[in-house]
Amino acid sequence: MTKGCKIWLWFLLICNILSCVLCLTEVSSAGISSVYYVLACMVMIYGIGLLLFKQNKTGFYVILTMVCVSFVINAVNGVDIIYALVSAAISPAVTYFFIRKNSDVIK
């Protein structure tokens, strides 16, 4: 796996851990949608871990699924649809860009 790919996946991992922790602090005030977002964030962390540490392509598919779930959660909660779509597209696109170059390493 290339150095750029590892750096990107570590960045994603740290950002998702921070996002999960911040959402956990808002669970009591934000309601049930925050709980769904925390669960989606935890599964996303699992997917990133699969891709980063096990170098398993299933992690990428988990990331794609959780990005779709996060998009739906954002759309239901009234987040601007353009913002939700752009935020949902960037992470998997950059991740795909990096793992495409490492197709021989990632199983």
Tally of extended strands?
0
Beta-strand fraction estimate: under 5%
Query: What is the helix fraction of residues, given as a range?
Result: over 70%
End-to-end C-alpha gap: 11 Å
**What are the segments in which pLDDT stays under 50 over at least 5 consecutive residues?**
none
Shape: globular
Radius of gyration: 14 Å
Main pleated sheet: none
Mean residue pLDDT:
85
Topology as H/E string?
Answer: HHHHH
Number of helices: 5
3D structure, described in words:
The chain has 107 residues and is mainly alpha-helical. 83% of the residues lie in helices and 0% in strands. It is built from five helices and no strands. The protein has helices at residues 3-25, 27-30, 32-54, 58-76, 81-100. Helix 1 (3-25) packs antiparallel against helix 3 (32-54) and helix 4 packs antiparallel against helix 5 (81-100). The protein is globular. The protein starts with a helix and ends in a 7-residue tail after the last helix. The mean pLDDT is 85.
Please give a handful of descriptors for the protein shown.
107 residues; mainly alpha; 0% strand; 5 helices
Q: What would you say about this model in short?
A:
By secondary structure, the chain is an all-alpha fold. It is built from five helices and no strands.
